[in-house]
Structures are given as structure tokens and as C-alpha cells.
């Protein structure tokens, strides 16, 4: 399955609602993350060129470039998640009756599990980076668009945590303890720090909007 990001919003939602295996949680996490990154771009575009924010212009240009790259990378994970999950879904259906067949299936299953979590792992990393952009925009972005900073971090926190859940569900079945340990040591700090930072940014935005 390819080009899911090219679907209409309605088709994406309908396919997610159906019993089709993809898009599922991973694809939704990637899409929501892409939207969160796009909101960083929106705030940047509404800030650039404004005299009031001239001191931040170089930073805004950098943020715009990074937000676009993150947006594109997150959307690309929708197809990657679908493609990487397919071998695992096929693996579950393999018949294995003899010990030899069971061993062969298990070996293949272990390989497929590692492939299946690769996109969610990337989603977590990308969402974390995009949250950091909104941290800057809460200070340097146009105050007329600060609510979009808050909306962006809410989306990205959802992508971050959803990506991690899609890692967890398969990670628990992987028997390679060193692999599991490495994934956890790399991602858990991002999930914890990114979630906390998103909450802080959200509260900051609420305070800026208070009346």
C-alpha cells in the first residue's frame, strides 16, 4: 500500500475506521505529527518579515525549513508504517505444526517485529524534534498565532505518545534483550521529556491567551 498521504481526509478516516490493518495507530500518529509540524510552519510563515519580530528573523527562517522537513518526514512514515507492518501481519498467518516449522516461524517473526517498529521509532524522534520548534515559537513567533503553537504541541504530544505505544506493543514480543534495551534507552527519555515539554508549552500558551 502506497501513497496513503495522498488520500483525502475522508478516505483516511474511513479506512482507519474499517477493519483494514492500515492505517492504524502508527499511521495516525504520523499524520497527527505531520499536522503538528505543519502548524509550526504556519506560525513561522505568519511571523517572517514582520518588523516586530525582526530580531528573530534568522531563527524563523531556520524553523520554517526544519518544520517543512519534519512535516515531510512524518508524513512519509505513514506509508513506511503500512509497508513495514505487512510482513508481520503475514507472519502471524503462517501455519506451524512441527518443531522445525515453529522454530522457522519464530525466527521470521522476530525479524518482522523489528521491522514493524522502525516507523514508530522514527515517529517518536521526529515528533520530539518538532515539539522543540514550538518551544521556540512560543517565544519568537507572532502572538497572533500563539494559539497555533498550543495546537501544534498538542498534536505532537499525541504523535509522540502514540508512536511509543506502537513501539511497545511489538517490543514486548522481541526476545533480543539488547535490542529492546537499546530502543528503550533511546526513546524513553524523548517520550518523557517531550511530553513534559509539550505540557509546559501548552500551559505557557494558555497563560499568554488568558483574559
Task: Explain the layout of strands and helices.
Layout: H1 9-17, H2 25-47, H3 57-92, H4 99-116, H5 118-140, H6 146-171, H7 177-209
Helix pairs in contact: 2-3, 2-5, 2-6, 3-4, 3-5, 5-6, 5-7, 6-7
Q: Can you summarize this structure?
A:
With 211 residues, the chain is an all-alpha fold. It is built from 7 helices and no strands.
Outline the structure in words:
This protein is mostly helical and 211 residues long. Helix content is 80%, strand content 0%. The chain contains seven helices and no strands. It has helices at 9-17, 25-47, 57-92, 99-116, 118-140, 146-171, 177-209. Helix 2 runs parallel beside helix 5 and helix 5 (118-140) runs antiparallel to helix 6 (146-171). The longest helix has 36 residues, at 57-92. It starts with 8 loop residues before the first helix and ends with a helix.
Gyration radius over CA:
20 Å
What is the first-to-last residue Cα distance? 48 Å
Low-confidence stretches: none
Give, in order, the helices and strands.
Answer: HHHHHHH
In percent, how much strand structure appears in the residues? Answer: under 5%
Please outline the major beta sheet: none
Proportion of helical residues:
over 70%
Enumerate how many helices there are, as a single number: 7
The oligomerization state is single chain
Overall mean pLDDT score? Answer: 96
Please state the overall shape, judged from the principal axes of the Cα atoms.
elongated
Question: What is the structural class?
Answer: mainly alpha
* Number of strand segments: 0
Amino acid at each position: 500500500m502506497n501513497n496513503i498521504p495522498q488520500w483525502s481526509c475522508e478516505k483516511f478516516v474511513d479506512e482507519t475506521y474499517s477493519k483494514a490493518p492500515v492505517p492504524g495507530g502508527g499511521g495516525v500518529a504520523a499524520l497527527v505529527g505531520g499536522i503538528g509540524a505543519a502548524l509550526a510552519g504556519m506560525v513561522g510563515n505568519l511571523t517572517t518579515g514582520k518588523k516586530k519580530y525582526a530580531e528573530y528573523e534568522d531563527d524563523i527562517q531556520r524553523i520554517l525549513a526544519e518544520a517543512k522537513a519534519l512535516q515531510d518526514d512524518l508524513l512519509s512514515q505513514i506509508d513506511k508504517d503500512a509497508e513495514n507492518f505487512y510482513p508481520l501481519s503475514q507472519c502471524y498467518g503462517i501455519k506451524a505444526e512441527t518443531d522445525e516449522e515453529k522454530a522457522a516461524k519464530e525466527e521470521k517473526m522476530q525479524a518482522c517485529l523489528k521491522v514493524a517498529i522502525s516507523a514508530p521509532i522514527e515517529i517518536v524522534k521526529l515528533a520530539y524534534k518538532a515539539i522543540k520548534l514550538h518551544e521556540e515559537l512560543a517565544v519568537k513567533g507572532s502572538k497572533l498565532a500563539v494559539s497555533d503553537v498550543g495546537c501544534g504541541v498538542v498534536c505532537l504530544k499525541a504523535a509522540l505518545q502514540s508512536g511509543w505505544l506502537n513501539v511497545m506493543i511489538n517490543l514486548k514480543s522481541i526476545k533480543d534483550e539488547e535490542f529492546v534495551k537499546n530502543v528503550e534507552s533511546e526513546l524513553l527519555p524523548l517520550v518523557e521529556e517531550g511530553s513534559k515539554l509539550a505540557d509546559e508549552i501548552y500551559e505557557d500558551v494558555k497563560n499568554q491567551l488568558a483574559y
